[in-house]
Amino acid sequence: MFYQKYRIQNSTLLKHAKSVIHSRWSSIDDGSRKRLPLSRIHDVLSGSALNEFRIACFDELNRNPWVEWFYKDCSELVAKLIGPDFCIQSKLNLSIVPPRDRSSQLPIHSDSWAGDSPFQLNFWFPLTDAVGDSGIYIVDPDCTLDAMQYLQVNGRLPPIKKRSRMTVAARVGDVIVFNPALLHGSGLNTSTKTRLSLNLRVKNFFAPDFSAQFPDRNSASYYAHTVLSDATKFGVRFWGTSRLKIEDAPG
Fold this sequence. Notes:
- The chain is α+β, with helices and mostly antiparallel strands.
- It has one domain (4-82, 93-206): q2cbj1_9rhob like domain (Jelly Rolls, Sandwich).
- The chain is 28% helix and 21% strand.
- It is built from five helices and eleven strands.
- It has helices at residues 12-27, 47-61, 66-81, 141-154, 230-239; strands at residues 4-7, 86-88, 93-97, 106-109, 120-126, 136-139, 165-168, 174-178, 184-186, 195-204, 225-227.
- Strands 1, 2, 3, 5, 8, 10 and 11 form a seven-stranded antiparallel β-sheet that branches. The chain has a four-stranded antiparallel β-sheet with strand order 4-9-6-7.
- Helix 1 (12-27) crosses helix 2 (47-61) and helix 1 runs antiparallel to helix 3.
- The longest helix is centred in the first third of the chain and has 16 residues, at 12-27.
């Protein structure tokens, strides 16, 4: 499987994130807009107005304790997939993809091209159902590795066979987990609904650090939230070399 899908009942993150977005929506409401579902935002906002709304929601979300919400939902899942010692990305990302908006398409890529660690996982939460063309696609690991080797030799990606590209279907309450070093992207949203989603990255505390080549991916800034086991906290203090902020588990 190119990715893993888990179901979170009564997600704290989704409940609070939707509340933040609806609150922001109400602040520009004329008395009727707030009754529209999030998937119909494009009926009212488009272009720069929609992007300004997204940025305002992004800023508001990141002023809230979203790490605690995420930890409440996914602490056991993170420990299972990554281990008890991990770092969480400093910002919670919000994506809004309206129908037929070519500027919102995400070309096929690997996050490693921007310096993201291949030793991390992306947690992707749909705020509206994402099925068919309204979702994302992920390329399988073997094809990704072959394509990356081809890219190094030829300076471009080879054609990616359709059978190697998995379209991800997810509904509200699902979380999709995948390694963002895998080739992935999104096509044109040909549905009639706007797709909203949250995403964030988590990596093991002991994973290799590539900040020498990519300073903006330094663990102390790009991954601003760190949860460590008691054993690792003692080891870090004994060794005396950590510059990270050591936090107790949220909540």
